[in-house]
Amino acid sequence: MRAKLSYTVSAIVLVFYFVLVGDRGVLLIADGRPVTVAFGVAVLVLPLIGAWFLWHTTQFARQAGRLGRELEAEGGLPVDELTRTPSGRIDRASADAVFARRQAETEAAPDDWRNWFRLAVAYFDARDTPRARKAMQRAIRLHDAEAAAGPVGAAPRAAEDPR
């Protein structure tokens, strides 16, 4: 809950910043002189890139949360079995051992989004955030493909007559 609140506050502050900077960019463009128009366009690019990044990051977090809730409902969330240092940090050897197990599970069933979700958590625990994100993106793609295909063993739906 704390992470969600922090993310929300950060997103609100960023949107406020985007509005302020965007307003200044519009004012520079409205001035009409070539130099201020060029600066105005340059100033508008930053909030546009930031808004795009914020949108995609928020979508990723929502999709990962949806998968986490579904996996929790199935009883398949990974159990926290990591040992921690006295300061509360995850012990590297413990994270490596759990990661090796999760990687073997994923290699054994590479088309199961659940394994990719658990592997993403193991990457995150091992402090490899870029690979954690890629593994979670793979889990999301596999989950969405599975959902689009329908339940396993279900007969394909007949196409409806458009007449």
Can you give a write-up of this model?
There is one protein chain. The N and C termini lie far apart (about 50 Å). The protein has five helices and no strands. The protein has about 160 residues and is an all-alpha fold. About 75% of the residues lie in helices and about 0% in strands. Residues about 155-163 have low confidence and may be disordered. It has helices at about 1-30, 35-75, 90-110, 115-125, 130-150. The chain has two domains: about 1-75; about 90-150, Serine Threonine Protein Phosphatase 5, Tetratricopeptide repeat (Alpha Horseshoe).
Quick take:
This is Tetratricopeptide repeat protein. With 163 residues, the protein is an all-alpha fold. Helix content is 75%, strand content 0%.
Largest sheet properties: none
Q: State the distance separating the first and last CA atoms.
A: 50 Å
Query: Stretches where pLDDT falls below 50 for ≥5 residues?
Result: 155-163
Count all strands and give the number.
Answer: 0
Shape: elongated
Radius of gyration: 22 Å
Number of helices: 5
Structural class: mainly alpha
Overall mean confidence score, pLDDT: 88
Estimate the helix proportion, in percent: over 70%
Query: How many domains would you count in the coordinates?
Result: 2
Question: Which range does the strand content fall in?
Answer: under 5%
Order of helix and strand elements from N to C terminus = HHHHH
